[in-house]
Write a structure and sequence with these properties.
The protein is about 55% helix and about 10% strand. By secondary structure, it is an alpha/beta fold.
Length: about 400
């Protein structure tokens, strides 16, 4: 008798054959009791924020490092430790955290801060106010309640980009907020994955934002292995992850750019794959499979999130592989006609190509053309199948694909 595929999976789940005993530990938001290989950085962040416990304003702080180097983890842990002590004192301190990549708009980011300070919807509606008015209401709240606030802006490089696109100098205003406060104070902690992001800022902002700076270096393969061992010990049942699987995880994540978050993601997905296959061990094969799955998901998510014109540019590159900016623009214009949309200027499309290149979905190289100067030629780094599969649900693009 052929068993029902649904029943088979449900039976397995019910019989409790699970090698992962605590999934939360394998999520990147989990804060472990001890953060490995980050003692110095924990001390530096704590020292930087200490003045708030002595009732004075800390310096603004910038924390740099590649993704997965423990920046957010350390800052959040220091904040929670300070918060514990603040509860015991009557000095009004507010520590608020927001991620500017997740908020996507300046308005959303400021409202998120306002909410954490205790401003309700009647004072701060989800839409409809001018940015300057939102900011004013936040400062009034700090002033009225004599709050000493620390605003943590994670992925602050995204905010810097938003600022340059919208022309709103919110970062400048945030760094100058204390001049407008009569009581209470505001300090900023910026966390950035991009070491060069300061180059994009207004020089007036740089001096006041980076009063103190801490750089988190990449983890090496050995350190990532130790971090993984700790997480595996708490998350998996004993002896369910083979040593070669652990080594491969550390090598894949460490060899690329010392990214512990990627290593933890890998072991989690590998564990889930092993469970699905009813295996009682996580093997190297599971890790390889997990790596492939994560890459595909990342590219798909990235492609799906693009607005229409970016998608048209990607399709134009696909149709005119290895082409110069000019050829891509012609191809893009033809596609705009097909879908009945007004085209953007060539200058904007050139800019867009650079932005898409940063995501790694396309790659460009400069080609010298003798007397005609230089041109940049672009091609996709992913398969045309992946593009078609991801875009096929977009109604506007169905005719082209």
């Amino acid at each position: 008798m052929v068993s029902d595929p649904i029943d088979r999976l449900l039976d397995a789940a019910e019989s409790g054959k699970s090698i992962i005993k605590n999934r939360d530990i394998l999520h990147f938001t989990y804060i472990p009791d001890t953060i490995q290989h980050r003692t110095v950085e924990q001390e530096q962040v704590t020292q930087s924020l200490l003045p708030i416990l002595k009732h004075s304003r800390p310096s603004n702080l910038l924390v740099y490092g590649k993704p997965g180097t423990g920046k957010t983890l350390v800052v959040k842990k220091v904040l929670s430790k300070i918060q514990e002590r603040v509860r015991k004192s009557n000095f009004p301190i507010k520590l608020v955290y927001s991620n500017s990549k997740e908020e996507t708009t300046l308005y959303g980011l400021l409202v998120s801060f306002g909410r954490q300070l205790g401003l309700g919807e009647e004072k701060l509606p989800p839409t409809g106010l001018a940015i300057s008015e939102v900011f004013k209401r936040i400062l009034n709240k700090i002033d009225d309640e004599k709050l000493n606030a620390i605003f943590v802006i994670d992925e602050i490089d995204y905010l810097a980009e938003l600022v340059s696109k919208t022309g709103k100098d919110i970062l400048y205003q945030l760094t100058r907020a204390n001049e407008r406060l009569t009581q209470g104070s505001l300090a900023l902690v910026g966390i950035s994955n991009d070491l060069t992001f300061k180059e994009k800022l207004d020089p007036r902002v740089i001096s006041s934002l980076g009063e103190e700076e801490i750089v988190f270096t990449n983890y090496d393969v050995e350190q990532i292995k130790k971090i993984l061992e700790e997480r595996i010990k708490d998350a998996f049942i004993p002896n369910s992850v083979e040593e070669p699987a652990l080594n491969l995880c550390a090598a894949l994540a460490g060899g690329e750019h010392g990214d512990a978050r990627r290593a933890i993601d890998l072991i989690r997905v590998a564990g889930e794959l092993a469970e699905r296959q009813q295996s009682d061990k996580v093997t190297k094969e599971h890790v390889r499979e997990a790596s492939q799955k994560i890459e595909e998901n990342k590219e798909e998510t990235s492609l799906k999130s693009y607005p229409l014109h970016e998608k048209l540019v990607i399709l134009a590159i696909m149709k005119a592989a290895g082409s110069s900016t000019g050829e891509i623009y012609s191809s893009y214009k033809a596609l705009c006609k097909t879908v009945g949309r007004d085209e953007l200027t060539q200058r904007r499309i050139t800019q867009m190509l650079s932005e898409i290149e940063l995501s790694g979905i396309i790659t460009g190289r400069l080609v010298h053309q003798g007397i005609h100067g230089r041109t940049k030629k672009y091609k996709l780094t992913i398969t045309p199948e992946m593009v078609k599969k991801t875009f096929k649900d977009d109604l506007t693009l169905q005719d082209i694909i």
